[in-house]
Specification:
The complex is a heterodimer of chains A (111) and B (706).
Chain A (H helix, E strand, L loop, with lengths): L3 E7 L2 E10 L4 H13 L4 E12 L1 H14 L4 E5 L3 H9 L7 E3 L4 H4 L2
Parallel strand pairs in A: 2-3, 3-4, 4-5
Antiparallel strand pairs in A: 1-2
Helix pairs in contact in A: 1-2
Chain B lengths: L10 E3 L2 E5 L6 E5 L2 E7 L5 E8 L7 E4 L5 E2 L2 E7 L6 E8 L2 E2 L4 E2 L13 E3 L17 E3 L22 E4 L1 H6 L12 H6 L1 H7 L3 E4 L3 E3 L6 E2 L6 E2 L7 E7 L12 H14 L3 E6 L16 H9 L23 H17 L4 E4 L18 H8 L7 E4 L19 E4 L1 H12 L5 H8 L14 E4 L8 H4 L35 H20 L3 E5 L28 H4 L1 H16 L22 E4 L15 E6 L13 E7 L5 E4 L9 E6 L22 E4 L3 E7 L1
Parallel strand pairs in B: 14-15, 14-25, 15-20, 20-21, 21-22, 22-23, 23-24, 24-25
Antiparallel strand pairs in B: 1-2, 2-8, 3-4, 4-8, 5-6, 5-9, 7-8, 10-11, 12-13, 16-19, 17-18, 26-27, 27-28, 28-32, 29-31, 30-32
Helix pairs in contact in B: 8-9, 11-13
Classes of the chains: A alpha/beta (111), B alpha/beta (706).
Chain lengths: 111, 706
């Protein structure tokens, strides 16, 4: 399934929607979006993951890249992550670095 | 910044863009635009890089290393525009087939890279391999980056360690572990870190986690029909790769990240990690064995061979790695540096380490270059180095292992003496006195930290079986009970195996507590075997190397069943960690060098100040440690008195009187039922009689003087 990513910047929140399979061949596209968000000095990064069906080790690295590129003060939210994507995130420990939510919760993210 | 000009292809082969590669580092390295492959062989005549799509049974392409791609004996090449996540690679080498002279080249074989950092082919534990696949153990490239945050190796003082020897799969495989992650994995182990912390251990020593093949020599048990595996993993396939089957994410090829996360989590909880490394042999076996890697790359270099070209078998498993050949030595060094630097590993325990001190013909070296090099290596400088100081060829070096001021060793003599003494054997008082002091007879110049003290390890009985069986019961292994050690120094406490007799059960628990207590009050580094703290049994099997079942798995219901043992272990470990006087870097001087009024250590008998070293005394040993001498007098601790009675009746021990108004308090009394068998520091009851104490039959007491 082809990978697509789109970025919306609003009120200091960078929302990136990910669809398809995130692997080494497309990770640079995702990183480019993160770079755009960082350049815009976003204070929160929200990754809409509902349409992401697969994430490889390169995908995981792209998440780490997001954390490091945005800086420790920027909170990263993973929204509606599918089970098969949650598994490697949890078992490699990355879930400690992000906030995982079942759906976009404005009171948590925008509050 | 000016771009490098050597990142562009210069050659093309079947559409693949290439250029001569970097010779170092060996293995596959992800470089700008592609992957660099580099491999050594001094006797190959040609070398071909074989690329596969991930999991494919047929090669995608075979790319010969051109003559201009070879520098010295190293073939290197960069291949551009390949997807590192979906590629597997191997080598095909041609050269002489001349076994008598040590050469076994076979260009029909696809060979795994000895430096492979990720190995596919056994991605999920126990999944039947496709034996028709020409490439069973498949090298994969890897990105070494990881988000370590602030983690680094802990560098705990070695004298403060309490080591827990454990098997990753066994720890959480049993359904009673109730882990959320896939049971039996690195991720599963993370969920049980709180248990390790509560137990009080601060170092785990993992049985091999390098890639091995659980299907090597796998077979059905003639007794149970169950599949018997290469379960422990003492048969390395790849030295640089974590075992995929131990990772919940092995199916995604993410075992590197998962294992690094385990290391990071252990460190965050103050627990060091030591790897059991097996450099004495490989999974390729003898001349009838399989081709995985070394045999087809440069057999004569990587293995110790007889003058007729057969394999020396100092490991007892078919072959012996030629560790003191300079090329192999460098590989071992590269490997350990890689684990120390990339995985933040805190130390290494070397299986059958005496082999590492043999020359290329198998003769013991007086100054083995590999051991010296490891001892002085700058990257390994803070790593613990622990030797199993013997091999299967009869070289036994406990006490004389070439240490270079760095190496510690499994003290097999500690194990043997303690087992015999607690069992009630005679003529051991003198030796026991040495063992509890950190074996100065063995390590006079090296100090007590050279001694890894243990009673049980993966080889042999568990502690509960040590007090429950007179002989081994290894029928389930399928060798008619001929495998495994016969010299177990065990005693079944009156009945062979399982029993409902409360008296025998009570005695066994007491003996377990006796062992644990002596281990924790001995100078040296204590090591306990996974599950001994809850009375884990292997039903008398003392060689469970092939058992992927309840014989090895940690049954977490034992935490309730043997709660008294668990509580005792937690407290006795805490007792050791509370008292600095028990954890010394230097040997006792048998003198009062701080003016405390008593020497740093003194021995006693049933009468104070009158140790009985004569043949008349076979069952009692008592000693007192001066807390004022803790850490060479820099720390003030309680005085500690230990009395051991292995006699079948209670005995009265006269107590040494304490200077400066201090009084004796009861810290441990293994003859008492829980919870009065051991007291929390600070809550120890004052002894009513400060002159004598009764020590129950087959019991140990520990007093603190404050």
């Amino acid at each position: 399934m082809a990978f697509e990513s789109s970025l919306v910047l609003e009120n200091g929140i960078a929302k990136i929607t990910l669809v398809g399979e995130l692997d080494a061949s497309v990770a640079p596209q995702f990183q480019e979006k993160i770079k755009e968000a960082a350049d815009a000095h976003a204070q929160k990064l929200v990754l809409m993951m509902e349409g992401l069906v697969y994430m490889s080790s390169a995908g995981l690295r792209a998440l780490v890249y997001a954390k490091q590129k945005m800086g420790a003060q920027v909170k990263i939210y993973l929204i509606a992550t599918q089970d098969q994507v949650v598994e490697p995130i949890k078992q490699t420990g990355f879930h400690y670095s992000v906030i995982m939510l079942p759906s976009y919760d404005a009171s948590v993210i925008e509050g | 910044m000016v771009e490098r000009i050597d990142v562009y292809p210069t050659h093309i082969h079947e559409g693949y863009k290439l250029r001569p590669g970097q010779t170092l580092p060996f293995g596959a390295s992800i470089v700008p635009g592609g992957i660099n492959f580099s491999i050594f062989s001094s006797h190959a005549t040609t070398c071909i890089l074989v690329l596969f799509e991930k999991d494919a049974d047929k090669p995608l392409v075979e790319i010969p290393f051109l003559e201009e791609f070879r520098i010295g004996n190293v073939y290197s090449m960069t291949v551009f525009d390949i997807d590192y996540e979906n590629i597997e690679y191997g080598f095909r080498m041609d050269g002489p087939w001349d076994p008598k002279n040590g050469h076994r080249f076979d260009k029909t074989k696809v060979l795994m890279d000895p430096y492979a950092k990720v190995i596919g082919g056994r991605d999920v534990w126990g999944t039947n391999p496709d034996w028709d696949n020409v490439y069973q153990h498949r090298s994969r490239p890897v990105l070494n980056d990881f988000d370590w945050e602030h983690d680094k190796p802990l560098e705990l003082p070695i004298e403060d360690l309490v080591i827990y020897e454990m098997h990753v799969r066994s720890f959480t495989r049993h359904e009673s572990s109730k882990v959320e992650a896939t049971p039996g994995t690195f991720a599963g182990m993370i969920e049980k870190i709180p248990y390790l912390k509560e137990l009080g251990v601060n170092c785990v020593e993992l049985l091999p986690i390098y890639e091995f093949d659980e299907f090597e020599d796998s077979r059905r048990s003639p007794i149970t029909g169950e599949m018997l595996f290469q379960y422990w993993g003492y048969s390395t396939v790849g030295f640089f790769a974590p075992k995929a089957g131990y990772a919940a994410t092995g199916k995604y090829g993410m075992q590197v990240d998962e294992f690094k996360n385990l290391v990071k989590e252990l460190h965050a909880n103050g627990i060091e990690i030591i790897l059991d490394v097996v450099f004495n042999h490989t999974a390729e076996g003898n001349e009838n064995g399989q081709y995985v890697s070394f045999r087809g790359i440069d057999n004569k270099i990587y293995y110790m061979l007889t003058p007729d070209g057969y394999y020396f078998n100092f490991s007892g498993t078919g072959n012996t790695l030629n560790c003191n050949h300079p090329v192999v030595r460098n590989m071992v060094l590269d490997c350990l540096r890689y684990w120390a630097a990339e995985y933040h590993i805190d130390g290494f325990r070397f299986d059958l380490a005496a082999i590492l001190g043999r020359d290329q013909n198998g003769a013991p070296l007086s100054n083995p270059p590999l051991l010296e090099q490891l001892a002085h290596d700058p990257i390994l400088a803070k790593c613990k180095l622990i030797a199993e100081a013997w091999d299967a060829g009869g070289l036994y070096q406990v006490g004389v292992f070439p240490a270079y001021g760095r190496w510690a060793e499994w003290n097999g003599k500690y194990r043997d003496a303690l087992r015999k003494f607690i069992k009630g054997e005679e003529n051991l008082i003198g030796e026991m006195a040495s063992r509890v002091q950190g074996s100065p007879d063995l390590y006079a110049t090296r100090g007590p930290t050279a001694s890894i003290n243990f009673i049980t390890a993966h080889d042999g009985f568990t502690l509960m079986d040590l007090v429950s069986y007179n002989g081994k019961h290894n029928e389930a292994n399928g060798w008619n009970n001929t495998d495994g050690a016969n010299d177990n120094d065990s005693w079944n406490s009156g009945w062979e195996g399982d029993t409902t007799d409360p008296g025998i059960i009570q005695l066994r628990h007491r003996q377990v507590k006796n062992f644990a207590t002596i281990l924790m009050v001995s100078q040296g580094i204590p090591m306990i075997l996974m599950g001994d703290e809850v009375g884990r049994s292997q039903n008398g099997n003392n060689n469970t190397y092939c058992q992927d079942n309840l014989l090895n798995w940690f049954d977490w219901s034992l935490l309730d069943k043997n709660a008294d043992l668990l509580k005792f272990f937690q407290k006795v470990i805490n007792f050791r960690q509370t008292h600095a006087v028990l954890r010394s870097r230097t040997h006792y001087r048998h003198a009062d060098y701080v003016g405390s009024g008593i020497p740093d250590i003194s021995f006693h008998g049933t009468q104070a100040w009158q140790p009985d070293w004569s043949a008349n005394n076979q069952h009692t040993l008592a000693f007192m440690l001066s807390g004022d001498h803790a850490k060479g007098g820099k720390v003030h601790d309680d005085h500690i008195y230990v009395a051991i009675n292995t006699y079948w009746d209670a005995l009265s021990f006269g107590l040494p009187q304490l200077p400066h108004g201090r009084r004796w308090h009861m810290a441990i009394n293994t003859s008492m039922p829980t919870p009065e068998d051991i007291w929390q520091p600070g809550s120890e009851p004052l002894l009513g009689d400060q002159h004598t104490v009764w020590v129950g039959n087959r019991s140990v007491i520990v007093l603190v003087g404050r």
